[in-house]
Amino acid sequence: MRWLCALVLIWLAWPALADEGARPAAATVDLAHSALAAEGRDRGKPRPLELRLTISRPVPYRVYFLDGPPRLVVDFREIDFSGSDADALPGRELIPALRWGGFRPGRSRLVMELPGPYALRMAVQTPAQAGGALVKLRLDPVQPKDFVTRGNALSALWDLPEPAAIASVLPRRGGGRPLRVALDPGHGGHDPGAQVGAISEAALMLGFARELTEILAQAGFEVVSTRQDDRFIPLERRMTLARAAGADLFISLHADALPAGEAAGLSIYVWNPQADDRATRELALRHDRADLLAGLDLSGTDDQVADVLMDLARTETHPRSEAFAKFAVSELNRAGIAMHRRPVRGAAFSVLKSPDIPSVLVELGFLTDPGDRANLFDPDWRAQTARALARAIGLWAQDDAARAALLRK
């Protein structure tokens, strides 16, 4: 298992995080190691695009689309684009127009006019080989009906949080890369989840995932998301996306609704194999069982053997999930975040079934509870919660790597 090969390495914090009280200097762009590339041959139609932007240090950013004409907009905090000509970006000729620069104090913006409607398929920020950080965005052409632009209620909810105060020592995984976290904003598309007026759980969780992504990226983690916009992703597809990205930790984000008075406060769920025995059997019956265990092909094995192998994998993965839940509760308590009277609970949710990736579901609160609802709409509460979760991830990662090292001895 790849998680048995985790190494305990020291990664020095980015200089911008060394002094919590000082605002970090603006990052700069390295055009020599940046580019825009298109996939496939030019046949006169929009092609998949990949933007690779190398900057001097990691910065929080958000991505969205606008129409009239179709444009990709990336807001950074912040990059000093002065002295960098957008038209000099290698591959600039692949798109109608590109511009960048500051647009308000502490914020920078990149606007890329597109040859047609697109969707964001990947957005990651990783350490760059040339030093600094690499922001990589993958765009795929879509039909006009699938072109999702900003301009809904979610826009009013989204606020940039302050950088997180994360420990300066981050463990790296195999190959020397930082810890990779998969964030799973619940629901989406034709499944809006819980709703209060015009605001849906799906929109709220997408906004919170973006805020948490920025804090984690600022701290040096790699982040992948199961969805970047308002689209429906099947439950087990979410696990597959996390596994394909090589995620080390999976966090699903929700804010459900229950009859008034029945539930309130943040809670964290981990897989409970006793909650529904059908879940494991159904998982084993799927035709693509080779996808369920990293490096282990279950095709050609009977269901009983597959069940045993998955249960065996969970005997080590499940305690790691529980350990993260405990770190999260500790950091949330320190941040003064109100939680359910039983903050760690078990459930047979589909997104927790992964036998090889530690997984939790964070119920940020309940839209049916007035106090929880006020918190979910409060930018300060969301920022504090995101910082606490980021600190928990850092502490858990160090503890998890240390335990893995002991197991090897």
Termini separation (Å)? 16 Å
Shape: globular
Structural class of the secondary structure composition?
Answer: alpha/beta
CATH architectural type of the largest domain: 3-Layer(aba) Sandwich
Order of helices and strands: EEEEEEEEEEHEEEHEHEEHHEEHH
Order of neighbouring strands in the sheet with most strands: 14-11-15-18-16-17
CATH fold assignment of the largest domain: Aminopeptidase
Tell me, what is the CATH class of the largest domain? Alpha Beta
Mean pLDDT across residues = 76
Q: Which descriptors apply to this entry?
A:
409 residues; alpha/beta; Immunoglobulin-like; Aminopeptidase; 4-stranded antiparallel β-sheet; 27% helix; 25% strand; disordered N terminus; N-acetylmuramoyl-L-alanine amidase; N-acetylmuramoyl_amidase_3; N-acetylmuramoyl-L-alanine amidase activity
Could you explain how this protein is built, in words?
With 409 residues, this protein is an alpha/beta fold. It has 2 domains: 33-150, Immunoglobulin-like (Sandwich), CATH 2.60.40.3500; 153-409, Zn-dependent exopeptidases (Aminopeptidase, 3-Layer(aba) Sandwich). The chain has helices spanning 153-157, 201-219, 235-244, 278-285, 303-334, 370-376, 379-408, and strands at residues 27-28, 35-38, 49-55, 61-66, 71-76, 79-80, 97-104, 107-113, 118-127, 133-141, 180-185, 195-196, 199-200, 222-225, 249-254, 266-271, 339-347, 359-363. Strand 9 and strand 10 form a beta hairpin. Helix 4 (278-285) crosses helix 5 (303-334) and helix 5 crosses helix 7.
